[in-house]
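Marked as duplicate of an earlier ticket. Keeping the data here for the record.
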Amino acid sequence: MKGNLLAQRLKNIKVVGLGQASFDFLGRLPAYPHEDHKAELAELTTGCGGPAATAIVTLSRLGVGTSFIGAVGDDRFGAEIVGFLETEKVDISFLRSIPGCMSQVAFIAVASSGSRTIFWHPGTAPSPEPFEIDLSPFTGARVLHLDGLKIEASIAAALQAKSMGMTVVLDAGTFREGTNRLLPLVDILIASESFAVPLVGNTSDAEAIKALAAFGAARVVITQGAAGSIGFDGGEIIRQPAFHVKTVDTTGAGDVYHGAYIYRFLTGAGMSECMKFASAAAAFKCTISGNLKGVPNLEQVLEIMNHAK
């Protein structure tokens, strides 16, 4: 009976995420101190984050069935991460808690401008090995979302996903050794501005996005922070300005963008509409302090979009 219930639950999963989940300490301060100086925090909060986990929680809050594949330690930080994902209705059937290991932890310093600087430790919990990746239980899944930190596991998952007819989405924040082997397996590439530099050098954003598209992704987006985002799907280059909001904390805004983009993609929207919706979701996140505390629901995203009209 348990097996049947699990199979039914996994059948309803539409997006599977593979990557990082983190326990975050977030400190607010008036300004960053100079090296070898002290700064008193105006506020200190804790929560959960991580690129893939934040995107998956975004999708869950938007009403999409999600599952997260990864690993945490059996410490109190890992327990917090597991508990939070469960609260957010994310399936954690394949999130392992590894005995004797430390979970990923980050300290995020947020200045009064809303900009953030992140210090993080990956922890010691080993990520799933390629041979451990098994997406076959997710018979109804349509999208695999990767943060690309563990290249070999990501490649194994992407190959399985494509064989199952799933769309592979990559959050390309940092270019790592082996990333060029993963890129040809990606259908939707959402990259940071800095990601393209090792591949194409310091060039215009239009040249950079077309160079990234040459790796094979049908849709490519480069997020540009306060400047918005630029997209390319083989036609004209699309530019989506950022929505103007009072920025409190930019932590996790890019990850929310990824999750919101996938949500709109699942509804059948084209590139421009996906980018607009994702930009609105990221803007909402910037109005609230904390990583996952500011992840919006559908009503909140639509409010940002309608307010801008």
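See parent ticket for discussion. The domain at 2-21+50-104+125-307 is CATH 3.40.1190.20 (UDP-N-acetylmuramoyl-L-alanine:D-glutamate ligase).
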